[in-house]
Give the backbone structure.
Amino acid sequence: MAVGKKDISCPPYVKGREIKAEDIKEGKVTYWEHHPDIRYSFTAGQAISRFLKGLKEGKLLATKCDHCGRIMFPPRMFCELCFRPVDEWCEVKDTGVVETFSVSYIDPDAKPLEEPVIVAVISVDGASPKMGFMHILGEVDPDDVYIGMKVKAVWKSESEREGSVTDIKYWKPLEG
Amino acid sequence: MLMEIERIKGLNFHKKQDVAIVGAGITTFKRRLNETGKELSYYAVKQALEEAGLGIEDIEMVVMGSAPDAFDGLHMKGEYLLDGSGGSDRPYMRVFVGGGTGVFAPIAGYWHVASGLADVCLVVCEEKMSSCHPHPQSAFKYIWDPILDRPLQPNLIWIFALEMRRYMHVNNIKHEDIALVSVKNKANALDHPAAQLAERITVEDVLNSEPMALPVRRLDVSPPSDGASALIMVAPHIARQLTDDPVWVAGVGWALDTTWWTNRDLYFPRYVAEAARMAYKMAHITEPRKEIDVAEPYDPFDYKELHHMEGLGLARKGEAPILTREGVTARDGDLPTCPSGGLLGVGNPIAATMGVKVAELYWQLAYRAGKRQVAKEVTRGVAQAWGDLMQVGTVVVLSNKR
Ligand SMILES: [Zn+2]
């Protein structure tokens, strides 16, 4: 190719052979399948272990940094801004405000869901502003959800709770 | 002790030598390609070498960019891709910042040359998303926090839908205005030989397309793809031997925001603004809207082009949709944006999108973009990418004047 010339159009060609779904069905393509079966168990760590224990007890726990004054939710054992240990644990409310939301028609593998799921970032009351948390909304029509809507956690019963974010079934509109 | 220092120390950057781009390559982008990642990388590298007039023996060091290993199903993907990338028997490294990799890899190539460690550095980016079944989204689910997020059965699209909704709400933007980006980029891609999803569509087509995670619909999103791309970056004395018209790297910048993404206001990409501040300062740009002639902001979703234009200072907050509606960002507009056709039109093989971001900007500034060449005269342009948990911004400013 002519180096340094402007009168060429780039890319001058493109390589690569496309495979269509039919090519695979008709056995025109050589491929090898492998289904790895690797399992993981994740430790929850210092802060989130305590947070999960709080969920089991029906409480939302946060941590406070006295240096910047933030009440951080979800809680952490160090403040990432001040880069120092947190000073204390505190309980925040199980009510909050919808900061943003989506109505999802797909599951984690992009397969269609029969019923859409409403997911939201909820700023939790009692934590510092914009200390949001991702969770699911329920008992509400997708068309009725709006940014700024006040919501309240709907907990599983005490016996059903296992120390997981799913101990809250969903958040529902807070009337009044 | 609180010291008075710049947040990003790179703002006081010292370099050994300037860096020029003298060649680029790209494979076709398709949902599924027969070639392996190694073979795709080889094709892209060969093309870049041809344009530069160099042989593989002229390459001193190699930077490889590729996104999560889980797509290919191969850990240590950098090593797997080594031979196809021309990396054997020379200094070689892989860099990775999720979707931001396509612009981060050339940044890494830049520091190899700017530092004086190398005079000729090859940058290669590859992605082979089709290996993963049932859908590449199945690999994305391992990006989520295992304890706080995964029990909720999330799809990665959620995070973008939440950001898009917040952006629309705060700036009072309608979906119609956002859909215009998809319409523009897919039409621009008709002139790109590598394009996977080039087509003429209407705003209504976007608004009526299948809902994924509302407000995100099928035609708001770029497709998963296989593909590779390459760039050759050289020192000034090498550039002079190869061409009278090299394109120079005027500035680079990158920044990451906190992984506590639900603690950030999603309406504005702070990570891009920080990265742009660094790149512009290096490039001596103070008014990007006036000084940038052509832009390739990262557009895996239509709203992202707008969001990123605002982060890059090419539009005020909430102004990018207005510029789009007025045709300012069209190929014949005052600020042509994604003239390549972008990820929405050409395809989204994550890291390999370097070929429609930095490589496209290089071809535009070298006046080699053929049918895609923007109408106006161009001196300076910006390319940008974004990724991880919505927190990395990577920015490169190129100029055809040193
Ligand atoms: Zn603090």
